[in-house]
Design goal:
Length: 343
Amino acid sequence: MGDTAASTWMRRALHLAASGPWPDPNPRVGCVIVAPDGEVVAEGHHHGAGTPHAEIVALRTAGSRARGATAYVTLEPCAHTGRTGPCADALVVAGVARVVFAQSDPNPDATGGAERLHAAGVDVIGGVLADEATALNARWARGVALGRPLVTWKFAATLDGRSAASDGTSQWLTGDAARADTHTLRATRDAVLVGTGTVLVDDPRLTARMPDGGLAPRQPLRVVMGLRDVPESAQVHDAPGEVLHLRTRDPEIALKELWDRGVRDVWLEGGPTLAATFITAGLVDDVYAYLAPALLGSGRAAVDDLGITTITDVRRLEVVDVEVIGGDVRVHARPSDPTEEEK
């Protein structure tokens, strides 16, 4: 098997994997099964939690033609039993002669497939287009490493850092294009999270909406965090789907419950108090700041007190990108890795 052929089939498997859903509790995985004569006998990709893994989809299509074939898989076949059985065992039973995979499985609960395949006499090769496969599931892998959902904090503010005027009014700081961009990004997350204060004061719907005002095809779970009751009349109840009320002020407890529910990517849109709570706990992984070219001079700050009293303790962010959207500026940044600053 030449390197060129392996890269070609793995690239096809990566293309299939990209069709899978994200966010999802499981990674996006693709599989291509190729006969010894070079004929593709089956393809498959994972369609989301609770559905067959990519290898199983492809094996069911291949049937007896899988015997003696090579399976190209974007992620090391799993060796554990969850909602589905171990893919490594299924490949052995099907008589696959060789398994080529891209990324080793970073999930400690699922790893070990390569060893199981090798022990069963299957030729195993790993690391083919590993960087591309890793990039495809970067957010999933980060969540696995942290053992919690990833958190993206979104806020809108004036250039002087105000999220509302002194009388409490805040609609609309940014223009239509920036708000549409927010809804597009909101729809790519598992859940949108706010505090009870935001619900009581701003009465948001927390839905992902299209430019015409209609609901986006995919809606995140609407989550409210805090001890106060959420009125039945609140607009958060008006759209289809579940509204989850987490009766806690502890962000770690909230994220654990969401993780246990299968939530892997959280869009944090709470007010300055909730934002400060997550930031000081070290639980913000990305920041999207929508800055309006405007000044208020007074009013509510975008974030509450972070306990910083001297410039040496400033919380640095690394800029990922900056984009002008309509008449506003969107800054995407991430907290700096403190281990890097110490080098």
